Amino acid sequence: MGKGFRRMATIVRKEWLHIIRDPRTLALVIIMPVMMLILLGYAVANDVEDLPLAVADLSHTDASRTLLEKFSASGYYMVTHVAQNEAEILEMLDAGTVKAGIYIPEDFGRNISTGGVGAIQFYIDGSNPTVAQTAQLAAETVSQATSQQILIQRLERSGAGLTISLPIDTHILYLYNPDMRRMNFMIPGLVAVILQVQTLLLTAFAIVREREQGTLEQLIVTPVRSWELILGKILPFVLVAFLNVAMTVGAGAFLFGVKVAGSIALLAGLSLIFLLGSLGLGVLISTISRTQMQAMYMSSFIMLPSFLLAGLLFPRENMPWLAYYSGYLLPVTYFLEIVRGIILKGADFFVLWNWIWPMSVFSLVVFFASVLMFHKRL
């Protein structure tokens, strides 16, 4: 028995030496779980609050100002944009810069002051049902609270005999997803995230595997130039990824009824730009990693945040600053907004420009930087 324990201890010591002699893998195994817990814990532990709100107040009266103050004080909304009319509110909702909009007509204050009913139009981005339902509940609560305050003031002035009716009539309209189907929100997001995961894994593991087998060095000594080598290895993955885009979008339309409301050509073109960034991340991982285990750990550090920090499951607006700004380090954050904008809202190039240009810059920089690093580290 004693000899058995000694033999086992020898093997344990041998394996431990292998671990500590590979500091890169050891650091990934020890540090990555803590970092993932911090980032993802911040992402999931949040409530829906401070939703970006666009306001078009054509009344400019005490009644309209009181109503807007109630919305700001509720904690659910934060007035981030001031519009001049309903059309500007709808443009902001199309672009995704706000999640809700309130239009107060010119006669609102006059109707309230004369004892009538002031009607307002409240728009909600219904593409995310969870956020939309919270926004609806908050809007109704704020409107009722303001109505009660106005009623009390009327009773104090008029006394008994006053006909009691709510002085504020809030019309709520859901945009892009009027049936509040959660599938309409999830399917476009899953298209983006699945594409991110697949391109990342295919590129990272394929190159690392060839390095471990020694076949990559055999290719280097051939007359093939470095850029020809890297593009030759990446282009097949681009074709596979494009096939997956078509299949996932088609499956979403035929199986789940989530049809593309916008331009398919625009979706395809922007998908190509996104693929450059995703494949660049894969090449970057393969450059840093020396084994497939290292590539797996580093890929997981990108894949798991892609599900949570990019806004697939939880609204990014409510995340703490650490999780919120970490999401901008992932190209899928921009692409997810683009895919949802095209599929659900039918948004065009100019409406999505605020998401297109940072994704394009990020993808091109990451791609060319990864190719250069790959060439230097061969």
3D structure, described in words:
By secondary structure, the protein is α/β, with parallel strands linked by helices. It folds into two domains: 125 residues, 3-Layer(aba) Sandwich (abc type-2 transporter like fold), CATH 3.40.1710.10; 196 residues, no CATH class. It is 68% helix and 9% strand. The chain contains 14 helices and five strands. α3 packs across α6, α7 packs antiparallel against α9 and α7 packs parallel to α10. The longest helix is centred in the middle third of the chain and has 32 residues. The two termini are 49 Å apart. The relative contact order is 0.12.
Neighbour order of strands in the largest sheet? 2-1-3-4-5
* SSE succession: HHEHEHEHEHEHHHHHHHH
How many beta-strand elements? 5
Largest sheet descriptor? 5 strands, mixed
Span between N and C termini? 49 Å
Q: How many distinct folded domains? A: 2
Radius of gyration from the CA trace?
A: 27 Å
Oligomer: single chain
Helix content: 55-70%
Poorly predicted segments: none
Strand portion: 5-15%
| SS-based class | alpha/beta
Count of runs of 4 or more consecutive helical residues: 14
Shape: elongated
Mean pLDDT: 77
